């Protein structure tokens, strides 16, 4: 845990930036935010220094339904505590593990929104060698990237995820730590403060289909219903839902090459290096008693 003085210095460095984050939503939903904030202050599992910018992200993820936001934020911190040492206590965007992930995977938010106003996320393997792939560091980066998307790009009514499964094998999944994999999937489904509206899977091989059949029982019905597996030699079925003008050239789209979009997201993640330290310190201020209680859920 960082000292109080260092924490104050970090907040001061981030203060001007935080003042620009989610200003429209904070103003529009001021009354509901106040109710949410007051309720959070009564909950021992929620960091007392949580910011109004974070609170509005939870509300936005559930279409500003206060009861659902309360359920989401409790699940968020309870599940986060269970996998904190693996995913959330090392969030340095310049750490070698995180930097290596950028060379192994494709990950970017695309600049144009869908007709419904959803932000599109594209991901896949840039290097298919499983020895280069760090499953846990990849998910760590994914959570940091989604945080960067919300804080820097703004809030959206939802996300549409496109996943290119080319090159995916059984060796990419750490089955020896499958209990931890289950907890990560629980966090993604029940604790992540974003609203995923659709998941489009491309180039799923026979091996990929077998992997999906193993993981599918761990997914809730709502998530399974939004997964679209696009088969065949063309991407016509994808274009019916996401037009070509919203996609990079690697997917037959007209946005141009994918590389600059990934570089742009990487810069946003690295820009938030001080914010990630603050977020870690928020959680570490929870009492050791509460951390032990949360880890048992």
TrEMBL record:
InterPro entries noted in UniProt: CRAL-TRIO_dom (IPR001251), CRAL-TRIO_dom_sf (IPR036865), CRAL/TRIO_N_dom_sf (IPR036273)
Alphabetical list of CDD domains matching this protein: SEC14
Molecular function via GO: phosphatidylinositol bisphosphate binding
SUPFAM superfamilies: CRAL/TRIO domain (SSF52087), CRAL/TRIO N-terminal domain (SSF46938)
Cellular component terms per the entry's GO annotation: membrane
Gene3D superfamilies cross-referenced by the UniProt entry: CRAL-TRIO lipid binding domain (3.40.525.10)
Pfam family, one: CRAL_TRIO
PANTHER family (UniProt xref): ALPHA-TOCOPHEROL TRANSFER PROTEIN-RELATED, CRAL-TRIO DOMAIN-CONTAINING PROTEIN
Name used for this protein in its record: CRAL-TRIO domain-containing protein
Organism of this sequence: Rhodnius prolixus
